[in-house]
Amino acid sequence: MILVWILILLIGTGLLAWLASRWSTFLPKLISLVGTLVYFGITLWLWLGHDSGIDSEGWIISYTGNWMPSFGIQFKLGMDGLSLLMLLLTSFLSVICVLVSWKEIKTRVGFFHFNLLLELAGITGVFLALDLFLFYFSWELMLVPMYFLISIWGHEDRIYAGKKFFLFTQASGLLMLLGILGLYFIHGQNTDVYTFDYEQLLGTVIPKGTAFILMLGFVVAFAVKLSTVPLHSWLPDAHTQAPTAGSVILAGLLLKTGAYGLIRFALPLFPEASHQLAPLAVLLGVISILYGAKLAFAQTDFKRLVAYISVSHMGFILLGIYSFNEMAMQGVVMQMIVHAVSTGALFIIAGSLYDRIHTRDLAQMGGLWRQVPRMGTMGLVFVMASMGLPGLGNFIAEILILIGSYQGPFKVLTIIATMVLITATAYALRIIQKVFYEEERKVWVIPDFGVREMIVMLSLTGVILWLGWYPSSVLRMSEVPVQKVIQEVRMSKSGEKEELGSIDKNTVYNGGDFLNEKSMDVKKENQAQKIKSIKTE
User: Fold this and answer.
1) What residues form DSSP beta bridges with 514?
2) Cβ atoms of 173 and 221 closer than 8 Å
3) Over 50: is that where the pLDDT of 310 sits?
4) Cα separation of 212 and 179, whole Å?
5) I want to staple 362 with a disulfide (CB 3.0 to 4.6 A). Which of 72, 239, 434, 518 is the partner?
6) Can you name the residues that pair with 78 across neighbouring β-strands?
7) pLDDT by residue (tens digit) across 451-490?
C-alpha cells in the first residue's frame, strides 16, 4: 500500500494547504514543505533499501485494486528500479519547488500549493501506473494544475502560454487515448479478455500496419512532452511565462514523463513498429540537439535561452532510446536526471534574477558578479554542467549516449550530434558573459543569494557532483529495467517474440520475464483461431 499512500499524501497535503490558507499565508507553505519532505524521505528510504536482484524477479513493489472491473480497468501500480529513480527525482524536486516559491508567490498561496502538489501527484501516477487507463488518467491529471500554475502565477503573456501548453498536450493526449483503445480492443478480440493491464497487453499480436498506427498515437504524445522538434514550440513560451516552480517542474519532471513513456510503453508494447520508426526518431533527435542549441545562442530572454537548452538536451534522449543499445539507454536514464537538476537550477537562477531586477533581457544585465558572487558561482557550476564538463553528471549522460548510439546503425547521425559540444560551449559562455561579466548596462543594487536560496543551490550542486563522480548509484538501479526493454525489442527484431508465449496467454509477462506459473481464464481454441487468422491477413 505504500505506493497508494504516496499518492494520498500528495493529494491530501495539497487539499490541506488550500484549506489552511483561510487562516494564514504561512501555513500552506509549511504544510507543503512537510508533505514534500515526507515524500522525499519515503523515496529515499526505498532507494537505500533497494536490491537490484528483486528487479530481475518482477516489480520491487506492486499494488492491484479493483476500479472498474467490468471494463477491465484496475488501480494497478508498480515500481521497479527505473520508476524508483523517477520517484526519487520527483520527490527531491518537489521540496526544491516549495522552497523556491517561498517568497515568490504572494497571491492565492493556498491554491498555488494545492495545484503544485496535485501536479506532483499526477506525475507520480504516471511513473507508477501499470494500467493503461490509469496511466492516461494520470497523464491528463498533470495538464490542469500546470495550466493554472502558468495562467495564474505566470508573467505578462501567461494566458497565451497556458492555452498553448493546454492545446498541445491535450491534442496529443487524445491521440494516445485512441492508441490505448485500439490496443484494448485488439487484445480483446485476440483473447476474449478486455483489459487495460499493461502486463497482459505486452506481447499482443497486432498486424504490422495497425501496430505502427497505434504506436504513433503514443509516440506523438510522448514527443510533445519531450519537446521534440517540430513539436516543441509550446515549451519556450510556457517556460518563459511560468513561475520559477512551474519552470522547474516543466524542465525537471514533465519532459521526463515523455522519455519515461517511450521506455516503459512505446518500445515494449510496439517493439517491431519501434524498429520501423527508429531512423526518423533518431533524425528528429539529432535535429533537436542542434536546432535547440542554435536557438539557445540566439535568445535575448534568459528563461527562453534555458528553455531551448532543454530542447537540445531532450534530443539526446531520442537518440539514445532509438539506438536500442544498453549503454545508450543507460545514458538516457542518466540524462533524464542530470538535465532535471542542471536545467532546473538555471531556471531558479533566472527566476531569482527576475525577482531582483524585474527583467529577463540579457541586454540589460552585465557585471553582476560583483553584486551577487554567490549567484554567479552557482551559475557558473550549472552552465558548465549544461555544456557537459567532465566531473559533472551531464558529461556521463552524454558520453554514454554518444558511445552507445555509435555502436548501432546510426553512426553518421551520432557524429553529427557531437557537434553540440561546440554549440553548447557557445551558449554556455554567452550566459556567463552576458549576465555576470561584460560592462554594466545599468547600475543594479541587489541582494545576493540568502540562506534559503543557498540551501537549494548547494543541494542541487551536491547532486550534480555526486552523479558526475559516482554514476553507478543510478546505473545500477536502472540496469535491469533497461536490459528488459532492450531484450524485448531485440527479440521482436529476431522473430523470437512470436514464438514466446504471446499466443499462449497462460504465459504472463511479469516485469520482462515470461512466467508459466500463472494462468488466466481464456478460451484457448478461439484465441488460436483468431491469431491464426490475423497472421494470415
Assistant:
1) 509
2) yes
3) yes
4) 10
5) 434
6) 62
7) 999 999 999 999 999 999 988 888 888 888 888 888 877 7
Q: Select from 48, 132, 124 the least CA-distant residue to 86.
A: 124
What is the helix (H) or strand (E) element at residue 514, kind and residue range? Answer: strand 513-515
Q: At what angle do helices 271-298 and 420-436 cross, to 10 degrees?
A: 40
The full length of the chain comes to: 537
Tell me what the mean pLDDT of segment 10-30 comes to.
91
Identify which of 379, 353, 352, 383 has the alpha carbon closest to the alpha carbon of residue 452.
352
The cell numbers describing 471, all together, are 554514476
Helix (H), strand (E), coil (C) string for 251-273: HHHHHHHHHHHHHHHHHHHCHHH
Interatomic CA distance for residues 374 and 351, integer angstroms: 15
* Closest CA relative to residue 505, chosen from 486, 531, 534: 531
Q: Tell me, what amino acid is at 45?
A: W
DSSP states of 285-337 as a string?
Answer: HHHHHHHHHHHHHH--BHHHHHHHHHHHHHHHHHHHHTTT-HHHHHHHHHHHH
State pLDDT tens for residues 366-406: 788 888 889 989 989 999 888 888 888 888 998 999 998 88
Phi and psi, residue 169, nearest 5°: -75, -35
Closest to 162 (Cα-Cα) out of 243, 253, 103, 257: 243
Pairing of strands 73-79, 508-510: unpaired
Q: Is the pTM of the predicted complex or chain greater than 0.90?
A: no
Within 8 A by CB and 6+ apart from 39, the residues are: 6, 9, 10, 91, 94, 120
Residue for grid cell 480492443: 185
- Inter-helix orientation angle 326-357/451-469, to 10°: 160
Q: How far is CA 168 from the centre of its chain?
A: 17
The secondary element (H helix, E strand) that includes residue 462 is: helix 451-469
pLDDT digits (tens, 9 = 90+) for 48-70: 876 655 555 578 888 888 888 88
